[in-house]
Specification:
Elements lengths: L2 H15 L16 E10 L4 E8 L3 E7 L2 E9 L8 H10 L7 E6 L4 H10 L1 E10 L2 E14 L2 E11 L16 E3 L2 E9 L3 E2 L1 H7 L4
Parallel strand pairs: 3-11
Antiparallel strand pairs: 1-2, 1-9, 1-10, 3-4, 4-5, 5-6, 6-7, 7-8, 8-10
Length: 208
Amino acid sequence: MQRGNYGLFAFALLLATATAADEGGEVFEPGDHCVAYRTTKEMWFGREVEVVGRSCEVSAKLVAVDAGSQVVVSVPIKSLRSGNMLRNGSVADLLGVKLQPDLRFTSDPIDADALRDDLARGSFVLPGTLSLGEKPYPVDFPLEIVEHGGKRVVKGRLETTFEAFSVEVPTVMGGFIAKPRDALELIVHLDVAQVDGLGDWAVAAGLE
């Protein structure tokens, strides 16, 4: 093996083994106001490694539109942290940070009466649009509201794929060191009290 190729191989190996620290554990603490992505990759010898990137720099608000009210959640792409600086930069590029610095979810207009029935069941689906790289992608986000330490928290997990968002995750050393899976999980854990305007709207709509 030539010296240059050996150096590249060693660098790729170091990068790949550094992901092992991401495996296991809970994504959020009970009081967090955060979002995350979770996926897996196949390492050499068939080992599966979980990769989680989180951000708690979340802006969430309720805005009025002609058709009613919408929830808008925005997260700076560069605030997503996975425990690996090189991977963080790669993920930011893959998500189109140069075209659009924030990931942004905008819900469809919310029907208060329909939401009231959903809340009575304890869970609901919030349709909307996830925007990244200046491209909109429709999503249906399953959510529930739970109590954590005296706080009301909106929790949800959307099982999707990188392909659904036109994201192609590269392999490491042609897949010999690491090969990503297409499956992608988007996770939210939002403190209701930190969603601007939501409390007043809920009271006015008789949802409290």
